[in-house]
Amino acid sequence: MLQATADRLDPEPEPLFAQARGAIIWRSGAQIVGQLITWAATFLVIRILDPEDYGLFAMTQVVLAFLNMLNGAGLTRGLIQQRVADERSIRQLYGMLIVLNFSLGALQFALAPLAAAYFRQPIVADLLRVQAFLYFTTPFVAFPYALLARSIDFKHQARVYLASSVAGALTALAGAYGGLGVWALVAAPIALFTTRAVGMTVASRHRYRPLFDFRGAGTLAKFGAMMATGQLFWLLQSQADVFVGGRAFDPETLGLYTTGLFLTQIIVSKFVPAINDVVFSIYARMQDDLAGVALGFLRSARMVMLIAMPFYIGLAAVAEPLVATVLGPKWLAAAPLVRLLALAMPAMTMQVLFSPVCDALGRPGIGLRTGIIGAVIMPVSFVIGIYWGVTGLAASWLVGYPLYLAITAALALPVIGVSARMLIGAIMPVLIAALAMGLAVVTVNGWLPVQAPQVRVAILVALGVAVYLGWLGVFYRSILREAIDLARGRQRVPVTSAA
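Now predict its structure.
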């Protein structure tokens, strides 16, 4: 039985609702198309390259991830969050982004030998030196993004993101087929971000010149520093597994783990950030309508989990034939890791939805506090789990992330104005339907005779979709109507919870 937690959602003015819907369609739509292109190339490249190549590449990503938290992303969010921004502050942001990122490029070039010594892989130094070029493209992506996001203009961004995805995918394929090995993985993001920098600068049509006099930029710098600090702690926990595993495992084993992690994090790392980009801009415009923000958060959380939950549970249920089909036989050892990681991803997906709302409401300190907590919970989980090898490392996600989600929710929900009961009620129908689907898929998988993995995956995926949609259609039809109304651009419908 369904019980409404709110009689209605007080909608924001129609123009803002239309802007939000259009932004989500363009940003998410381009993300989906771009990712389909990227995945098609990625899975072809995975079949060509070896696990060792991905292990070496993952070692470099630890360094890039830690330095990237200083790239000024928090500054751009600070500009987006401000109700009014004058030309001087906008130009100062541009100057800050250039100074920060050019300095980071030089720093990574200098630190490359130290990283290679830590991982005991000399080639890591060469890889990092070449990847330092990425920082020189960042200001010319981030600054136009901030300008377009302030006006909730994601249409032009979407076109650039799509074009850059194609450039990166083609570069990866050409490099893999050309025998470049791990260098194909390095060349692809360079092509992607160079294309994106040029495209975003053109799309924004801005004529601002960077200003390197930062006097009077204290408010913007403080907001950016707060978010950067929170990002630092986020990176400490999100990269700790590769940091620990990179020294304990050989490149091949690490490659199996990181590729399995890539497969399971497709939604949380590729689609959810696109949605968070949009909702951050929308919630920043709705700061004075806290009731609307709260109910909008419930609705967006359920719509995200409507897609994410069946994906993760289904991935865990068909891990072995799916890995054989998508990645190829040489990656079969990653299947048990995929199963464990997939079961932990719903908690991660839910956890990353909180920070954009709190940031948009002018409370970046919530993200900082939860980041500190995560930087303790997850590394400790990884250090303990690694005693059981790569399987223990994957299993540690199942212990650490649910705990991390619970603490994050306890801190963030009062700020958003949502109770734990309302949030659980909003997503519980989706969880129940996904579990029913998973049970049906696992049961039928055990009954099926031996057959090609491609055939098995096709049968099980079709069964899972039918069971999931059927369950929602019978027991939670209002949720399907809500999703259809959102797609059609109708006004909001009530957020409901299970009684």
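The longest strand covers residues 2-4.
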